[in-house]
Amino acid sequence: MADAAVPVTTRKDWSSDQDVRWCPGCGDYSILAAVQLALPELGVRRENTVFISGIGCAARFPYYMNTYGMHSIHGRAPAIATGLAVTRPDLEVWVVTGDGDALSIGGNHLIHVLRRNVKLRILLFNNQIYGLTKGQYSPTSEVGKVTKSTPFGSLDTPFNPVSLALGAEATFVARTHDMDRKHMMETFSRAHQHNGTAFVEVYQNCNVFNDGAFEQITSRATRDEMLIPLEHGRAIRFGADAERGVVMDAQGRLSLVNVADVGEDALLVHDEQRENPDLAFALSRLSRGPFEPTPIGVFRAVERPDYGSKMAAQVLEAQARKGPGDLAGLLKSGTTWTAG
Amino acid sequence: MTSSTETEHHAYRVETIDRVVIRFAGDSGDGMQVTGDRFTNESAIFGNDLSTLPNFPAEIRAPAGTLAGVSAFQVHISDHDILTPGDAPNVLVAMNPAALRANVDDLAVGGTVLVNSDAFDERSLDKAGYSTNPLVDGSLGKFRVYEVPMTTLTLEACKPTGAKVRDAERSKNFFALGLVSWLYQRPVDTTLSWIAQRYGKLPIVVEANTLAFRAGYNFGETAELFESAYEVHAAAHEPGIYTNITGNTALAWGLVAAAQLGKVPLFLGSYPITPASDILHELSKHKNFGVRTLQAEDEIAGIGAALGASFGGALGVTTTSGPGLDLKAETIGLAVSLELPLIIVDIQRGGPSTGLPTKTEQSDLLHAMYGRHGEAPVPVIAASTPSQCFDAAIEAARIALKYRTPVILLSDGYLANGSEPWKLPDVGTLPDISTTFASAPNATADDGTPIFHPYLRDAETLARPWAIPGTAGLEHRIGGLEKADGSGSVSYDPANHERMVRLRAAKVAGIARDIPPIEVDDAAGGAELLVLGWGSTYGAIAAAVRRVRALGHKVARAHLWHVNPFPSNLGSVLASYPRVLIPEVNLGQLAKLVRAEFLVDAASLSKVEGTPFRVGDVEQAIFAQLGVVVADGERASAPVAAHAGEEES
Ligand code: SF4
């Protein structure tokens, strides 16, 4: 699918001249690097690539990409990107957002862009905190989170972004994390290949206001026990020696088991292409948060015509049926009469 | 009463009158809008000049038979040029007691009331709040009342169709239409063919409506109830092809035209809202023009998607009414900062909050001017008649494309749903409003490489280049953070911010050099009073000025089409009249702007009843300003706010 004439590029070509201004040690740096390293391999042109963001730390992302970009307003990037993507299907449009931007102020736009299946790649940097406003709890913060705005602990049940996206009819849903460049690059590449809205939750460490939120999943010391890799067509298992696994009972409930106890054949085989989102959803519920073994990878990747193509088809169909627009004819399309 | 089957028509006179105002009123389920619309079309095709004023409740089906559920359609037809739907109806068609009660007070003394007498039973009278039957208690003494059993006659006429009584009864609005069509000697063919076309899929409905319509017409001709029928001759229109058009249709077509003239694709992002939804409906029909419409998840997404489309090189448009404008404010601010073309159409309605969704008001002017945080100037254009919405849309697009700016286009419920005959423009004469996208670098880096500065401005217009994604070498990032003058990089530098604020203001203010000066209608010269209007008050003001002049008084008139920036000669025009009167369907918003901008002691004529000004309202206010005592002693129905220091009049 790569355009043969696309010039060979490197990370440098995709980096803008702006100084990157995230806090030292922020997980955003490694995500930026993974995107800048992945794009040269995707066969897309810089001038055809657009990054659109809302507000928040993550939202500074477009300034650092040597592409077209827009740093817009809080929560609205999916809506703005929708208008661009459906009028310019030739473009490669990415949305960079955060947990507050996408799930709080912009929640409505997110769910609607997902159900419409607009051809966008949405990267949701989830750090479970408000960083730019200096540390209030977010819609993904765990219950009881003590922050400046919740000195006695937060009361809200958090969203699970993957579950939310699946519930909103998303056709591509994945999760990756900021400590695994290779996995991020693979996931971003898969997102790029998807024909529709690709939703990617990226666990991202905010070392200033919520340090270590995902440490158990991402650190070398614990990740074997805590990170459940999802691979299409493969039995779902994890652990240093792949000694743990996931099984599904007759009611469709998932549980974690020791492979030795159930035997390899009893393990659940991942199927990201299953039309019914029940399996993907069940996998998204396997963990209540990054303090339990948590699936990472592509949960769901199914085909459904994208919104912009359907809109373009209606235009073409109307033109085939009625001919191209004739303004003089339009003005005379009601009842007319002649005077004089 | 003679039988409706009698074929010989009775002898009646046909009197010629120069104009008539008819109001059709009934329950919202009675089809009064269709009835009014058909009568309007018959008259338009006949060649009358006309103006219409639909008036319907916000509820889709308010409780039947109640005052809240009354839907009305007023049409003014004439044999000469007219400007408004008429102050007081000469004829009221009332399909039930509620319709009578809600409208009869507006009727001119000596006016004609045509009632469906079948609907005046005790229950219906009760629902309308009548303790006695107005048809017998003498309370309608100052009118000529014709009682016609429309339901009975409709059922009778529809018998051959075999339609159920309930269904056949629904054709009674066509009976009323037929009767009024006879009374004013309208041509009937267009309505008959319209019925056949509109209900073509339901032959029984076509038949019932046709029979009812004919029965109404024949009833007028044969029943010896009416001494006269009337004819209103065709008006002398300028030669040309005409169509009858509402403001919303004209606006939608104007947007389609603007995109063609601007050589850019049209994208509409919109959320349904009364009274703007018809623009979304209309544009959604015209996909063969390459028009893309998105019914967004909310008002914010509507404008967001429009702005995204503009970023990609389309003409992005969003349509809304007051509550939606509130929600779009933040995105309009972003568009000011991004300096991208965008059109925000606001079909104003009664506010605040949900207010009066189906009623008209001009109360969003200050919102359009200032309803954003920060210094966020936006050009504002206001359409003044239904057909002028077409030109206003093109002008809004011209300014948006040329100056890379959001433009707010104000219309209102009255213009949106009201209609008038429109002489179709020759599309070849419409202006070329196309613009060019940036295609090459416009600056040089320190090391000599050519680079692109997205905020390097055109020296004359101060517009920035519009470089759309897909253009190699011009990759750039824009956003809501303050940008460095020229390079467009994020900048927190205080001096730069001040420069950018002033540049954005100067860009919008400079549009004054690119719009026509305001025209003053002061043919006789030497007037003491200037009546200044904007938007939909045009018709009432112009008609009032005509009346006042006809009585020998001098008065000047001017109407604003561009509200921001003001035409460059407005200050000197205002200064040349000792008195200025500004009628507005709000509490004096333009008056406030004019007083602030020009230190002019303008008087404000306000009205916020959800209806447009009557000509008489404005006429009275003009007399008051002129110090003329009106012979018939009629007081102006709207208050004239006299400002301190002004002579009491
Ligand atoms: S506040 Fe947190 S998320 Fe924001 S830049 Fe700093 S470390 Fe990163």
Major β-sheet annotation of chain A:
8 strands, mixed
Strand content of chain B: 15-25%
Rg of chain A, please? 22 Å
Coarse morphology of chain A: globular
Any ligands, ions or cofactors bound here, and which?
A: iron/sulfur cluster
CATH architecture of the domain at 11-213 in chain A: 3-Layer(aba) Sandwich
Helix content of chain B: 25-40%
* Number of helical elements of chain B: 20
The largest inter-chain interface, given as chain pair and residues per side, is: A-B, 61 and 71 residues
Separation, N- and C-terminal Cα atoms of chain B = 54 Å
Structural class of chain B: alpha/beta
What's the shape of chain B? Answer: globular
Q: How would you describe this protein?
A:
The complex is a heterodimer of chains A (340) and B (649). With 340 residues, chain A is of the alpha/beta class. Chain A has a domain at 11-213: Thiamin diphosphate (ThDP)-binding fold, Pyr/PP domains (Rossmann fold), CATH 3.40.50. Chain A contains twelve helices and twelve strands. Chain A has helices at residues 28-38, 77-87, 99-105, 107-116, 161-167, 181-193, 215-218, 223-226, 259-262, 278-284, 307-322, 327-331; strands spanning 49-53, 68-71, 92-98, 121-126, 172-177, 198-203, 227-230, 237-238, 244-248, 254-258, 294-301, 336-339. In chain A, helix 1 packs across helix 6 (181-193) and helix 3 (99-105) crosses helix 4. In chain B, helix 4 (150-158) packs across helix 8, helix 9 (247-262) packs across helix 10 (277-284) and helix 17 packs across helix 20. In chain B, strands 11-10-12-13-15-14-23 form a seven-stranded mixed sheet, with helices on both faces. A six-stranded mixed sheet of chain B has the order 3-4-2-5-6-7, sandwiched between helices. Chain B is globular and about 95 Å long. Chain B has 649 residues and is of the alpha/beta class. Chain B has 20 helices and 26 strands. Classes of the chains: A alpha/beta (340), B alpha/beta (649). Chains A and B meet through strand 1, strand 2, helix 2, helix 4 and helix 11 of A and helix 1, strand 9, helix 9, helix 11 and helix 12 of B. Strand 12 (336-339) of chain A pairs antiparallel with strand 9 (240-246) of chain B. Bound molecules: iron/sulfur cluster. Residues 22-23, 26, 28, 57, 127, 131, 206-209 of chain A line the site of iron/sulfur cluster (SF4).
